[in-house]
From TrEMBL:
GO terms for molecular function: ATP binding; protein serine/threonine kinase activity. This is non-specific serine/threonine protein kinase. Residues 13-278 form the Protein kinase domain. The gene is pknB. Residues 366-430, 431-497, 501-567 form the PASTA domain. InterPro entries: Kinase-like_dom_sf, PASTA_dom, Prot_kinase_dom, Protein_kinase_ATP_BS, Ser/Thr_kinase_AS. The keyword ATP-binding applies. Its EC number is 2.7.11.1. Residues 671-680 have a biased composition (Low complexity).
Amino acid sequence: MDKYIGKRLDGRYLVEELIGIGGMANVYKATDLLEHTTVAVKILKDEFAESDEFLRRFKNESKAISLLSHPNIVKVFDVSFSEKVNYIVMEYIDGITLKEYIQQKDILPWKDAVHFITQILRALQHAHDRGIVHRDIKPQNIMLLPDGSLKVMDFGIARFARSENRTITDRAIGSVHYISPEQARGDETDAKADLYSAGVILFEMLTGQLPFEADTAVSVAIKQISDLPVSPRQLNPDIPEGLEEITLKAMQKDVDRRYQSASEMLSDIEEFKRNPSISFQYKYFVDSEPTKYMDAIKEVRTEQEELAPEKKGGKKKKKKGFFSIFYKDDGSRNNMAILAGIASAFLVAAMLLIGGMAIFSTGIFGGRVAAPNLVGMSLEDAKAKYPDFKYKEGDPVFSDEIEAGLIAEQSPKGNARMKKNGTIEVHLSQGPEVLVVQDVYGMEASAAEAALRKQGLKPVIEHKKSDSVPVNFVIETNPAKGTEVQKGDEVTIYVSQDEDTEEQVKVPLLSGTDKAGAESALKGVGLTLGKVTEVESDKPKGIVVGQDPASGTEVDAGTIVNIEVSKGPKEPTKVSVSVALPKGIGSIQLKIYQDGQMIKDAGELNPNYGGSGSYSIEVSGLESDMPVTVTFQINGKPYQSYTVNFATGKATLKEDHSGDAAFKPAPTPPTSSSQSAAQGGNAGGEVKG
């Protein structure tokens, strides 16, 4: 039996069952005995607890996700790191992964795909705005709840050290089927790497396939770098052209041609949602150094213009020859054939390029190859693994990330083009820079602070009474002078204070306590609780979320400390949306959708009998949420659509099809008596005429 099941963590979290097994941690369902809620607890596996690498990874996740608060990102409630156990307490999600859902459905309706990718991008935008890059976006890391909402999770390699694993191996950071080309190459990554992964997820949802498959992870990674994905519409013709363009723009190999931010991609998606027939006219296959095969594309366009009808309504000339494949029988463009032609042209160009590279690599023209990535290796291992290169050892450098004695820097950098058999200059790590706390004893406080800061340390001033040192001069430091420390470490400077000066105390950290706890903590150090203000917060009601003065501030004993406590999570705004149902067409089948996802099947209704002939539904969301579209569908056809704005609490009519023939009563046929009268009248008219 699992050793954690049935145990209490820190006396608070009762572990109940194992619900997920990961590479470096397991996830358990547990009960928070203090809050009486169900939570998920992610516990670092024992075999990794002694590894600095995995412990740093685990701490990275807790730090990254603790900075985030968004409805599409799993919440973190608590973290704990100790010699016995390391764990993160998170929101418990009762659902399945998006990957499982895609596998169940095979191909998702494009409206569902848009609904899901919108939520993913909103989560990424929130993270990116706070400087956090996920770097492992994949459907396995996204949970789908029964109400259709998504939660992005597993920030285990967010902001992970760039020096880690920067070559294409089976251990590459991120999952090879979803990583960006720059990740596969081992280059530095930013937020645009997450957008590439989002594009791959969108591709998979729309087509039921991954863009690149191969027998090994290395082969898939190489395809991410070099291969072009097949057109999504070639795999699924039902995909609108605009949505295909969005997908392919997100998956651009060149980061400069990719979406530059999640908000930019969201903007295009919103534009597409307003007009699904839109075409953005993005040029996906344009090379910065066009080959002669690009001329074929130009020739296609030129021929199309020449073959256009000379006047409106005229017939197009018959297309003959090779380029006829780019047109349908009715004379319209065959977009799929054009895309296939472009892809074929690039395939030929790529083959020529590869052939040319092969010739160059033989040494006929001097030969240039990609420099190996040596960062993190020993010089001996580098020489043994890459014996074809020459090595020059440069000056050693300090590094907080690379172990002493290993290669910390190289020139040229990994993957840069260089001469075959050329020389690589390497700089070995000396480990973190070690400093000796200088002697600032007896110096004036501000001068001592400046001296330590210039040395690369972080000085912290504290006051202390002294019989021998003048007021405002340094008594001592901690660590003491002459002690070895690392660059960036804190050094406390104890400064002499006046005998008449009141005792100074540090303001304690009050966040996370309630009012009674805050008052007790303040009283314990000789401070007084002052004004208590309620503020908006997602923290539970009554929990301290702010304080003035801030924690760590030195103040006189008896100082008043004001606090801010949470009003509790804000209640969602509820907006009622009503429609008048069509009468005179008999029974109807009514279904209601929110952003393309069905939220209510009202079943069969008959507006002619009972009730007021209208139907209402209530939707809810936070004021910060984006507006949603609520669509009423009758008998399988759109009836009315409303834009619901939670910030204003109003629903505005967006589209109205209630006047369409499908929702109008059939004309009443004339009776037999009226027909006779009409015939008699006509007959009389004829006689009179």
